[in-house]
Design a protein that fits this description.
globular, alpha+beta, about 45% strand, six-stranded antiparallel β-sheet, about 110 residues
């Protein structure tokens, strides 16, 4: 099994990043994690994560208190699921961050 990990900055200030982990076996994608994180209040906060834990591909919307809102994503193959997750996080990270920050202020 081969594992590749990398990060991509989403903003020019380095305060928002996409962390990715891909696992392959014999050239076939077998596991993925795409996680959007923001640097807020002097630490990194996971805000949205796509993965295959629990036996199905899903998105976790993570709240400031650590609770997660799990949403199953019905995509049959991991290659397509990976493209979906990456594009969603690159397109909507600012929206996810705005929602998260609003919830932080309500604490």
């Amino acid at each position: 099994m081969k594992e590749v990990n990398f990060e991509t900055l989403l903003d020019k200030h380095g305060n928002d990043r996409l962390r990715v982990r891909l696992k392959t076996e014999k050239g076939e994608l077998i596991d993925v994690v795409f996680q959007y994180e923001a640097f807020l209040e002097d630490k990194w906060h996971p805000i949205v994560r796509y993965d295959c834990a629990h036996g199905f591909f899903h998105r976790d919307i993570i709240k400031p208190n650590g609770d997660k809102e799990k949403q199953e994503i019905a995509i049959d193959n991991l290659k397509g699921a990976s493209k979906y997750a990456e594009q969603d996080l690159k397109d909507r990270w600012e929206w996810y961050k705005e929602r998260y920050v609003k919830k932080m202020k309500k604490r």
